[in-house]
Specification:
alpha+beta, elongated
């Protein structure tokens, strides 16, 4: 890692230990997101890490983004999810596909945390099959009429702008749907058993009029899949952070738990389990590092990122 990459990793690690770890359990139990973190994360540059400096971002590389997600997930998966959505699923498509006016309008606010975004792809009946989506857009004078619903949307009820994918004349197209547009609502989904400190919502569109300027300049599955590629890379790094925290907590417990007059960390059976976790974390870090460098050189394939995400999520779950 470069000095800059290590500096970001260490500063986010310190922030997590001081600002997230002390408060996150209470939010987890209550099923709430710690909104006081949004401005702080914005001030740290945790939103728009890869976004151009021309739009208020940091203009950093993929590895820096990955390391930041790793450290945020050490604190809580919901906090990392919030940042991942803002970076990869909202700011990326706006910078890549929106008009210059919309880039100037939204990206600086999203980068600072003064605005929150969400990403609407998954539907009640179509998650892993986005080509089957039912949400549709119809051309009208001056814009489009949007109807349908999205499900399991991180940050949905908090969002000031939603990147929404719908079928227009049979082709998947992206739109920026803004909070307050008539017919647009985002009720929160309560009582989750996982990612409890993350706000998850449904997005409902009932004859929502979206102006022409809010259409993204991309058609087909390439649009949403390019966003998911960015997000999956962040998850591949983020889950390493979750496993790191599991490992550290296990070490501390093994040192403090006394059985047969000594800490259980002194027994080889326990040591073997701890070493196994350490080995798997190290391998996952090497995979994520390699994929990050491939992305930075432009030599990556989406399969590389899917492989890293699958392997590293599995590793974290087994840890």
């Amino acid at each position: 890692y470069t000095e800059e990459e290590l500096m970001v990793r260490d500063s986010v690690r310190e922030f997590v230990d001081e600002q997230i770890v002390p408060i996150i359990e209470e939010h987890y139990m209550q099923g709430t997101f710690p909104m006081e973190l949004v401005e702080k994360l914005g001030n740290m540059g945790m939103f728009g890490i890869k976004t151009s400096e021309n739009y208020g971002g940091a203009g950093a590389n993929y590895t820096t983004y990955g390391l930041a997600m790793q450290e945020l997930e050490r604190g809580d998966s919901g906090v990392r999810s919030f940042a991942s959505v803002q970076n990869s699923l909202v700011m990326f498509p706006i910078e890549a596909y929106a008009s210059e006016d919309k880039k100037q309008e939204w990206l600086p606010k999203l980068a600072s945390g003064k605005a929150i975004g969400c990403f609407g792809l998954t539907e009640p009946d179509h998650g892993s099959n986005p080509s089957g989506m039912l949400t549709n857009a119809k051309k009208i004078d001056g814009g489009y009429l949007l109807n349908g619903a999205k499900m399991w949307i991180t940050n949905g009820s908090l969002a000031d702008v939603a990147v929404v994918w719908a079928k227009l004349d049979g082709r998947i197209t992206g739109f920026l749907v803004e909070k307050g547009m008539k017919g647009f609502s985002a009720p929160e989904m309560k009582n989750k058993h996982s990612l409890r400190a993350s706000v998850t919502s449904e997005l409902i569109f009932q004859d929502v009029e979206v102006p022409e300027s809010n259409r993204l300049n991309i058609d087909g599955l390439k649009g949403p899949l390019s966003c998911l590629t960015q997000a999956r890379f962040g998850i591949a790094y983020g889950t390493i952070g979750a496993a790191m925290q599991v490992y550290e907590s296990s070490i501390n417990y093994a040192k403090s738990r006394i059985q047969f007059d000594k800490p259980i960390a002194g027994f080889q059976l326990v040591q073997d389990k701890l070493v196994h976790i350490f080995d798997e974390i190290s391998k996952a870090q090497l995979i994520a590092y390699r994929v990050g460098r491939l992305m930075e050189s432009g030599n990556f394939k989406p399969e590389h990122i899917s492989f890293a995400k699958r392997n590293n999520v599995k590793m974290a779950l087994e840890s």
